[in-house]
Amino acid sequence: MEATTATKRTLTVRIARGTDESSLTTYEVPWRENQTVLDVVTEVQRHMDSTLSYRFACRVGVCGSCAMTVNGRPRWTCRTHVSRVEEDGVIVIEPLRNMPRIKDLVVDMSEFFDKWKKAGNTFVGTATRNDPPAAVSPASRKRKMADAAIECINCGVCYAACDVVSWDKEYLGPAALNRAWTLFNDERHADPKGVLKQATSGSGCHSCHTQGNCMTHCPVSLSPTGSIAGLKKNALLQFLKGGD
């Protein structure tokens, strides 16, 4: 009796190649158990096309550098299993939107980080190295406000998911404003009013339409939408109080 060989499944992968709005190149990749999207991209780069460019580092959901658009949705590819996103054995992988493409799946994040600076996100301490550590109670209201938003690692997923960024290239974006909120609530920071002023000026927090895409797509379940609402509320309170 002849031995039968099990049919090996393959996954059809369409990957954006080149620069700007380039076409998709199709690859047939072996479909393996517990395979992540990052595993698939790595398989293509190592065994099919060594010129494919993409970013990754930790591979375990810590650094966020492997963020890409998978079937139209921004994700960390190292934490996205193929079984969760494939559609009839097909996945489409593209770079994050709202940022210029450098090549293939790699985007230029310069404007993303430049907007951090515009949002007043540089910490300025009120103490020196010679002073004792600041006595900030973990139970204080401001500490809790900061804690709720402080785990952002700048992966850019929320920025890519934000429709307002697509409409208004000057909009500071959810990550920068989320950081501004944590700094505004940091009791050690020397200029919370300055942060609020920068976060609310120009295309700052008031440009947010509160659609919640940033909150929906955040890989670590933060709520930039809530942080932005906090900035708006405090800006209004400061205005009513006659603040500068």
Automatic annotation (TrEMBL):
**EC nos:** 1.3.5.1
Q: Name one GO molecular function term.
A: metal ion binding
Its required cofactor(s), as named, are: [2Fe-2S] cluster; [3Fe-4S] cluster; [4Fe-4S] cluster
User: InterPro entries per the record?
Assistant: 2Fe-2S_ferredoxin-like_sf, 2Fe-2S_ferredoxin-type, 2Fe2S_fd_BS, 4Fe4S_Fe-S-bd, Beta-grasp_dom_sf, Helical_ferredxn, SDH/FRD_Iron-Sulfur, Succ_DH/fum_Rdtase_Fe-S
Q: How is the cofactor bound?
A: Binds 1 [2Fe-2S] cluster. Binds 1 [3Fe-4S] cluster.
Question: Known Pfam families for this protein?
Answer: Fer2_3, Fer4_17
Q: Which UniProt keywords apply?
A: 2Fe-2S, 3Fe-4S, 4Fe-4S, Iron, Iron-sulfur, Metal-binding, Oxidoreductase, Plasmid
Top EC class, one word = oxidoreductase
Q: Which reaction does it catalyse?
A: a quinone + succinate = fumarate + a quinol
- In this chain the 4Fe-4S ferredoxin-type domain maps to 142-170
What pathway, per the record? Carbohydrate metabolism; tricarboxylic acid cycle; fumarate from succinate (bacterial route): step 1/1
Which GO terms of type biological process are on file?
A: respiratory electron transport chain; tricarboxylic acid cycle
NCBIfam families (alphabetical):
dhsB (TIGR00384)
Q: Which family does it belong to?
A: Belongs to the succinate dehydrogenase/fumarate reductase iron-sulfur protein family.
Mind telling me what this protein is named?
Answer: Succinate dehydrogenase iron-sulfur subunit
